[in-house]
Amino acid sequence: MAVNTSPDAPLPVGQVSRMIGGWIDRLGAVWVEGQITQLSRRPGAGVVFLTLRDPSHDVSLSVTCYRAVFDRVADVVSEGARVVVLAKPEWYAPRGQLSLRATEIRPVGVGELLARLEQLKKALAAEGLFAAERKRPLPFLPQLIGLVCGRASAAERDVLENARHRWPAVRFEVRNVPVQGVHAVPSVMEAVKELDSAPEVDVIIVARGGGSVEDLLPFSDEQLVRAVSACRTPVVSAIGHEPDTPLLDLVADLRASTPTDAAKRVVPDVGEELARVRQLRERALRCVTAHLDREERGLAAARARPCMERPQRMVEEREEQIAALEGRARRTLGHLLDRAESELAHTHARVVALSPAATLRRGYAVLQHADGSVVRAAAEVAAEEELRARVAEGEFAVRALVTPTE
């Protein structure tokens, strides 16, 4: 319950410590999992002191137990082991110190670890952290590679030597961290986040040599897996050997079987690239040469055609065709004119034969009144009327002497 205090009425330290102890005493026993980082078992002492640490967080608690409790697991438990303890929180008022009083200690076996890892793997996979579409491609030629590994380790030597052998100009930004034990997870996470925040780092390699399941356990930690999944920089996992598959392999953008394989997958081989460039140049030269040869043959074939070898031949052939067409046109036109002339002559002969002039040449005459109208009946002529008589060879005047009768 809340305590009423003020600057004028503060509580003594001892009373605050006793109150905290009273609250903690009301807590029941709990099962706690952690990793033993310190173990103190003095000869003749009836109490064993341990420090239990959470590998994923920078949190530790002191644990005490009677020697008889620890002796039951003394043969299988040592510093670095993961255990589950049944303990009750205790408060040591004189020093204001919290600890756990263990009544049972159980080591976490490999089978249990693997079962928990499998459960964690399924949970993270259900969230999509291992999905293939989240994998980012590695750069073809990284300018700066971030490397997270143990200090002076074989993994660091394998990555650096193989990468520089393949591409001597490659540069590395190395972060040496603990790769096993209680400090491995936070150290690796901090190094990965630091390299990921550097814009000049193109790819990050997390490398470690082989080891037991317990040794590689930090690389299956949930917090580390989530930190790698949140990176914007591609991450390559090179943990252990080919059979080793920590969860970091599943969330990384690329899984390498060994640190040496990571160097080969991240850095291209300069000799292979030069050979590939030569092959491409030779292929391009062959393509260009073949294209030129094909075009040259086509040009030679075009020049060998008669119209290109003797261009005036086409004009001469066209001239002969035009002359033939012209002669044909002239003949056709001549035939048409001759036929038209013949038809015109026949028509003219018929017209002449039927014309009044021909009648006049046979001795007939045409009488016309003074106004030029033709006399068609005797009744149309008056006595003494002057008429004009038109004959074949001219005309002359005539006078009607008597009145014509019917």
Written account of the structure:
- The protein is an alpha/beta fold and 406 residues long.
- It is built from 12 helices and 13 strands.
- The chain has a 5-stranded mixed barrel with strand order 1-2-3-5-4.
- The N and C termini lie far apart (169 Å).
- The chain has helices spanning 13-25, 67-71, 110-126, 154-166, 184-197, 222-229, 247-251, 259-266, 270-304, 306-309, 312-354, 356-361; strands at residues 30-40, 47-54, 59-66, 82-92, 97-107, 144-149, 171-176, 203-208, 235-239, 254-255, 366-368, 386-391, 394-399.
**Which assembly state applies to the chains in this document?**
single chain
Instruction: Give start-end ranges of low-pLDDT stretches.
Output: none
Strands, total number: 13
Give the overall shape: elongated
Average pLDDT for all residues: 87
- What share of the residues lie within helices? 40-55%
Strand order of the largest sheet: 1-2-3-5-4
Distance between the termini: 169 Å
Overall SS class: alpha/beta
Order of helices and strands: HEEEHEEHEHEHEHEHEHHHHHEEE
How many helical stretches? 12
Q: Beta-strand percentage? A: 15-25%
Characterize the main sheet. 5 strands, mixed, barrel
